[in-house]
Structures
1.
Amino acid sequence: MTAGVFAQKTRLSDKALRLYYDMGLLEPAWVNEHNHYRYYSPDQLEKAKLIGLLRQLEMPLTTIAEVLSFEGAEVTKAIAGYWQAVEEDIQTKRKLVHYLKTYLESKGESMFEVLIRDVPEQKLLTLERRVYIKELKSFIKTSSKEMYNHLEASKQTVTGDRMIIYHSLVNEDSDGPVENCLPFEGRLEPIGKMRIRLEPAHKIAYVRITKAQVVFPDILAAYDAVEEYLVKKEIKFDAPREIFFADWDKTGDNESVGDVAFPFKA
């Protein structure tokens, strides 16, 4: 059948069919090499309708290509997995809207108590990378594993808490950079993109956070509390960091896992 007839039967526009052709999602059964007219076969109707339905879910074309690569029950599983991620994203955005309303209306007082402590000079093994928000979790997980493995293989001892330093914003448009750090003692040769640096002694203003509060956007309130404290006291601060001292897998949602901290000089 011609592209026009196929479009009518599938309720897809010719523009959409051309796009799916260009993307390799739905290639015509035959293309006339002289006039470039496209022709489709009846057994392509089901696939075309599926693509149209998935687009109504606002599924990206690249994701649709992945779904179409599966067969049988795996197709349904892939669609369910995509929609679960969508719902999780909506839930995160719902929390962000609530945070923004609270922030803009300045309702109530901060639930966090800002504390101060001294941090001694420490030698750090670090891995730094530019990442966007969707890549952040994966970077932290893989870089932490790489550094712990290297320290263990080199028979060196971790002497402090793991830190994630945000040298600039990390979101959909800004990619940091982010620096994952492990304090250690001893002699060590860095490998790959790892490096070693000495961090001078300093003070930090910090708030303690539970495992549940680490989740975005809940953690933003912790950052706001510390930054507001320092600004009010007219204290100049450096790049903020998250310092984790607990075993994540063995800690409950309401138990403390670390601190949101802003370093500053005395």
Note: The first strand starts at residue 30 and ends at 31.
2.
Amino acid sequence: MSKYALLFPGQGSQYIGMAKKWYTGYSAAKRVFEEADDLLGYGLSQLCFEGNIGELTKTLYAQPAIFTSSIAAFHVYMEEIGVEPVCSAGHSLGEISALVCSGAVSFPAGLKLVQNRATFMQEAADATQGSMLAITDLPAKVVEETCAAINPSVVVSNYNSHDQTVISGNEEDIKKIGELFEQMGATVIPLKVGAPFHSPYMKPASIKFLRALEQIEYLKLKWPVISNVTGLPYEESKIAQYLSAQMLEPVRWQQSMAYIAGQDVEYAIEIGPKNVLTKLMTKNQPLVKAYSFDIENDYLDLKRVSAPSVSAFNTIGVIIKCLAVAVSTKNNNWSNNEYEQGVIVPYKKIQLQLEELEKKGNQPSLDECISALRLLKQIFDTKGTSIVEQEERYIQIFEETGTYELLHNACSELGFFKRK
């Protein structure tokens, strides 16, 4: 079976409308936002879906918004794709998202941590007037040495890829050294964060955050989560220590992605807004296929590659069970003509389908299974079977034939299941 890794984005990925499609289409995602609104005491969902981008970009709101959007997207991922990762990683803020999804921290506790983190970082930002720059097309070693020689108060804050390094510092110092890097042939891009994150400027925030982290109960990880500080999986006893240190230390993303590739991961899926980490994975480890769950084409491609093989399932059992369920379901319709056309005719079609498959010695394809289930739906509707009982019957078929993973999502998309 293919190995998956999940990646969770950090601040800067926010945009108006993020996660709205999950909120409107999936009850689990909607509940995440409703809980966040209640816990925060303001309309985070409205800010995410219809707010002002200037307001959403403020650290105080951006971090809870991206975190909540990522957790909502994770619920949809598990519902639609359902493959547990062999490991996960989050970029900066995204590390808390990764820890929550791994089960180490509850969602309410994680949101409280994110709110505290955003508050402390905003306070530090207001006191420093700092900023961050992404430096592309220069080796990290050159960036390090130049900063150390020209202005040691400007430091590397992110090792994103072999050709992208991010620096943090005082706004005026950052501007001057950015101009120097441009003269050296680099591409310089200001980040939309408004503070010198992952630098010594965050020391006051780091101290306050450690106190908040020490109040949290940490549970066992369901799968390894990679630390930004070390580029290696967390030791569970050091979650508070590493999350606090992360505010001061550079994000070792390139090293983290190398670790993921070393676990023979085939697919890396970015869970949250935009596709920044998807692009970075492609740069860092081109042999790992990267997808953004937020990007429609990537989402559709991921569903195709993750679809289970029909040959691994007892699909002939689905056809047999359709016949058995059709007979055993109570009839509530006493119109002879409707019964003939809506029950007898489709039942005979399923019988004929089974006979032809058994004659050829073939397992039915996914389409043939869906065809039989459609005919069973016609029988249910004609018999006047309630939606609740219909869904129970379908689940019975899937579970007794071991085809839930293969058929449930397909039937949901076809409208067989009305309840979310």
Note: DSSP finds 19 helices and nine strands in the chain.
